[in-house]
Amino acid sequence: xxxxxxxxxxxxxxxxxxxxxxxxxxxxxxxxxxxxxxxxxxxxxxxxxxxxxxxxxxxxxxxxxxxxxxxxxxxxxxxxxxxxxxxxxxxxxxxxxxxxxxxxxxxxxxxxxxxxxxxxxxxxxxxxxxxxxxxxxxxxxxxxxxxxxxxxxxxxxxxxxxxxxxxxxxxxxxxxxxxxxxxxxxxxxxxxxxxxxxxxxxxxxxxxxxxxxxxxxxxxxxxxxxxxxxxxxxxxxxxxxxxxxxxxxxxxxxxxxxxxxxxxxxxxxxxxxxxxxxxxxxxxxxxxxxxxxxxxxxxxxxxxxxxxxxxxxxxxxxxxxxxxxxxxxxxxxxx
Length: 335
Prior knowledge:
The chain is of the alpha/beta class. The protein contains 13 helices and twelve strands. Helix 2 (27-39) runs parallel beside helix 12.
C-alpha cells in the first residue's frame, strides 16, 4: 500500500508543539488550534508519547474524540514508554534536543524499542488519544541526534523488536502502515537496505527543507522512490526559522542559518512570495514526498499553512534560488 493512498491530503498537522515545546501552552489554545486544523479541512494528525510525556496525545485526543473516527488519519510513535512516576522534565537527557519539553508533563519516560514495550506503547497511546485504533505507527528517534554513539545498538533493538511487531500488526490489519520517524537520514538508508521487515513510509523531520536537503537528495530520496516508500516531511519550516521564528534544529538558530534565511526572504520579497509558501511547496515537490506536517500552537498559523499550500509561486523565484546557490541544482522544483 502506498501511504499516498491512505493520507487524505498533502497537508497534515504535526502536534509536537502541543506537548508544550518551547513554552507552556494553555489547554484552550491547544484545543482551538486542533479545531482550527479540522475546520480548515486537515484530516491527518501526527503525535507521539515523547511530546510532553503524553501531553500532546491527550490534547489531540480531547478534540478528535468528538469527530467521526473514519473521517481522519492518525499516527503516533513508539520507542518511549510514559510511566506514572514523576521526574524533572528539564533534567532529562534528550541528546541534542535538551530542554525541548521542559514544560511538559513530569511523567518519567523510558526509552525502549523492544517488542513488549512497543505493544504497551500502542495500548497506552490508544488510551491517551481516546480512540480504538491507530492508522500509522512510527518508530521514533532511533538516530544519532538522541543516542550518539549508541544509536546503532538502539537501532538493532528496534529492528528485532518494534519493526517486527509493527510489521505483524500491519499484516494483521490492526494498523494500516508503519515506518521510522527520525531527524536523520542514516537510519532510513539503513532500513531501505534490509530484506525484511518492510516499512510503508518514513517520517523525516528537518532533512528535506529549503535549508537542509542536499544529503537526503543524494541517496535516501531516490532509493525511497524506487522502493515505493513514501516520505512524510516533518518540520518543513526547520523548527520555525522559515516561518518567522528564531529556532533551527530545536535550538536558537546560528548566525550562518539566520543569514541564509535572510537571503531567501529577500528573494521571496522581490518575487512577492511568502516564505512559508516557498518552504512548504519546496518540501512537497519531490516525487517521494507524500505530505508535510507543520506544527502550530495558534489557530492563525494553521490558516497560514493552508494558504501557503496553494499560493502561486512564480518559476522565476525558484530559478533565482538556484542561481544564488540557495537550493541544490538537482532538487525537484514545484511545477
